[in-house]
Known about the structure:
This protein has 672 residues and is an alpha+beta fold. The protein contains 24 helices and 20 strands.
Amino acid sequence: MKYTYLCLFALGTIIACTPSGQLSQNTPSSEESPYLLKVGNEPIQSAEFLYMLSKNRDFESPEDKLSPEEFEENLELFINYKLKVKEAEALGLHESEEFKREFNAFKEDLKKPYLLENSLQEGELRKAYARMQEVVHAKHILLRFPRNASKEDSIAVFRMAQKIKEKAETGENFEELAIAYSQDPSVSTNKGDLGYFTSLQMVYAFEDAVYNLQEGTISDPVLTNFGYHIIKLVDRKPNPGQIKVAHILVRTDAEDPLSADRSRRKIADIYTELQKEGSTWAEVCQAYSEDKDTKNKEGELPWFGIGSFIKDFEQAAFSLNEIGEISRPISTAYGYHIIKLIDTKPIPSYEEMEESLKSKILRDSRSTLIKSQAQAIQKSKYHYQENTENISKTKTLLSDQVYEINTIKSLLEDKGMMDSTLFIIQSEPRKVSDLISFMESSGEVVNIKPRNFFQPWLNKYIETSLTSTEEDDLIANNEEYRLLIKEYRDGILLFDLMNQMVWQKALLDTIGQEAYFKKHQEEYRWAKRADALILRLNQSELISPAEKLLKSKPYSEDLNEYITARFIDASPISYKLQQGTFEYEHHPVLKDVNIQDKNLQKLKYEGKTHLVIIGKTYPEMPKTFNETKGKVIQDYQESLNTDLISLLRNNYIIQINEDEKKKIANIVVAHN
């Protein structure tokens, strides 16, 4: 894409402002906004010029306001910009496939922040972050569904879950109930105790239920993909953030009954060794730890927070309070550990976590929930109505079909269904024929299950139609969005026109370059020049040795190599060396030397001593084309741009609405 080059639009044709529009969404729509200009017969609303002026400016404080001269200059630049966009349209650049592809890609990104789904996603991000300020301790009992469960099976599981809840609420021990009833594979070791965790570490329905419980209370049966859960909230407390620890591990072998006792004695000896004067953690860890991944890194583990590690290890680690504090030996399923606290840090800010939160939310069930909520709002807002009879007929016809579009079309045409309405959005019927056209041209990838061809395609078509309607609604009623889209659209057209008629033309037109150079040859001249070597000395003690070495040396082309070998290779940061041909009259160092003196000269510039040797001098003279080709091309581009603007101003009638111009000036211009 040409995103990089869109910056040239801001620099070359409109105000030098940063790209983040601040125009209120309550600005009148384009239908209501009076025109400021007419280019040809096309009106350009005042709101568009004010939008451009308002980038990173609010014009409420005097320092943000423009002078009258700046206002006039910006208006002229705006007119030039609109003339170029008008010419690009006249040349049909907006109809090219490349433009459509690029503009549509930009539009997909630009519309996201304005869509309902994004605002709902933002709400879920904020809620997840707010929940992260706490960690919760919960226990649960899981009842799974039988394989290929029927509706009756599901009801039976639900009723059993209700009975277990009643038992727990009447005082029966929750852990004993978990051992008796829970089908969670880990219940034999944890008795249903999940320990502490925080937001985004459990499936959404489970998390939602836990965070809505009071301490000591038990939930109604909670349905997840795993089955029904009965949840008890044990505790909630502030989230301690993250910690970094190191550990020493002595492993145990579950198949060796004597292993645990040997490991326990060994970890006790290691702990005793750590208490001895002169003993260091690093040496003991490397000598005795059986965690081969960390023993050579002083046992250091990655940063982690609550709910990220095995419960016993995590509990011991978070109980350490002082940096450098070492725990007593603790046991986990891996063996015995001694833990050392290295560092702690609080939960990062929302801004720091936003992208990672978004990534996690888009991967879990919240994303489906957000989509369904957004679609429900769209359906209500845009008066969605479904024709269930026609949908049912079409679904029945296609349930056993081979998924070949021409076969489907023939069948639906034979049955007279192509003109049947499937649903209505804002009084506009969407027919079977529209769905078929969507299937043929959308490029969407839709997951189709056997004997269920129609419904996935219908769902995708409904989703796309509602989103398209929402986008049309934004264009019609959200002035900020409309102006943003127009800015990017016109910016791409501007780039394409300038590339075609100015930038690439100047780069490729070698005959035009040379003709321009000949016409303006007097503008490309060398000032007085001299060959010179300049050595800057960054330390005062270096001055004397360098002077001694260079005192009798005349200027030569290989002098820089000699100095580099003698001084700079040994201490590069102590020196800075320049050698070449310089226009000396305006050079910061050479302007103060005697150009006729070929001996070593010493002077100070910006607090540093510089040693200078002057060689051959050259008078003022014209540059050759090759010596100044880059500058010639740049100037030729500017000349082509000036000629283009002049041509467009002659070709298009420009009308300015003086009343609207004064209204904008009253807002943005500083008045004495």
